[in-house]
Each structure stands twice: as C-alpha cells, then as structure tokens.
Amino acid sequence: MPASHTDLELTEARVVDTRHPIEAAVPTVGLYVWQYPLRLFHWGAVLSIAILSFTGYYIHDPFIVGQVKYPFLMGWFRFTHEAFGMVFLALFLMRLAMFFQGNRWVGWRQYVPLHASQWKEMLNVMKFYAFINPKPVTKIGHNAMAAFSYLGIYTMILLEIVTGLVMYNRLRHSAVLGPLVGWIPNVVNVQNLRLIHFFLMFVFIAFGVFHVHLCMLISRTEKRGLMDSIFIGYKVIPEEELEEEEKRAVAERS
Length: 254
Description:
This protein is mainly α. 62% of the residues lie in helices and 6% in strands. It contains eight helices and four strands; from the N terminus they run βββαααααααβα.
C-alpha cells in the first residue's frame, strides 16, 4: 500500500518517509572484517549441517519407503552422511587454525571472556535482547554475547565430531582413529554416545533459527551491513570506532 501524503514530506532535493526518519551521518569506512576462510567455514557448515541432519535422521528412522526397490538406499544415505561428516571435520579444523592465524576479529581472544569488560558487555547485550535497552551493542566483530555463544557451539561441534568418529571407527576399525577415539566406548556406553550425537542435531537446528533471527534484528537496528558482511566480508564502520579499535589493538600488543 503506497504511503499517504501525510507520511511523505517533500524537501528541496528528496522525499523523506517520516515513518523512517533520517539519521545523522558520521564518517564511515568499509572494513574487511570476515576473511574468506571464515565465510567458507560458515556457509560450508550450513550446508554440511543441513545434509548431515537429513541423512542422520534417516539413518535413525528410515522414513523413505523404497528399500525393496532400492536395496542400497540406506547405504547411500550412510555414505553421504560419512562423506559430509569428513567435510565438516575439515571445515572445523580450518576454523581452529583461524583462531590463531586469522585477523583480530576471528582470533580466540575475541571468544574467551578474559576481561571484566566482556562480561559487562554480555549484560548489555542481554538487556537489548530483553527489550530493556533500545539499541544494540555495536562492535566491529562479534559482540561478547555472540562470541561466547559461538564458543559453546564450537564445543558442541567438537563433541558431535568425536561421537561421530567413534561410531565410524566401530565399523571401520581404523588404524588411525583407533588410538584417538577407540578408548571412548570403554568410558561412555556407545548407545549413550549415539544419543548424544543424535540430540545435538536438534541443538544445531534450534541455534540456526535463533541465530538468523538475531542477525536480522541487529542488522536492521544498527544499519551497518551485518547481513551483507557474511557474504562479502565488509562491514560499514564509523571512523571514530575504528580508531578506538586500533588503539586497543596497539595496547594489547604492548
């Protein structure tokens, strides 16, 4: 429905929609924040988790009727699941390397809350999510709450990978995996490992829904290209904020 005449005000050179007032502009720069390997991990993980969830649920409960006509149907699902499991493992190893080789916004120091300021920032972020604060905490990289939640997700990804490798090793009896994960069923029953592996799938799905919602909310509120940045790597950053970030980086290195 087109805006009414009362909603639009004609100025000298533009039409302003009063429902979305103009905000004061500050000098900004386009900053390359999310490096290509991080974006590759992000979208590779999205694809891998989607395929692993579909094939994994089928392995748990074969809901497609057709095993008589296609007797190797389960075999193809298991093969696809194991193949993308290895892809997921490779992506995760690449992400671990970026904790130490990536830029300051993807390094491990951004994810581990070592300073009181990070815990205080988490509280402010929670106030925004609870509709107490009207504006989000703006950061060049992740805010402290997002970073800490990703640390939890990475821990669960590691657990998902380890439990998957345990079950894979019980079938393959790998000379490589045996010394690494072969001892785990002696500590935790393999059926419990299978249940952990299965239920973590639902955690990742729930996190994905919540993650997309919050990204869209913050991107719309702060208007700094958050959603665009996971595709192109660049975010719109005020020059003053970038100068403060550079000062902090110098202080950390000294």
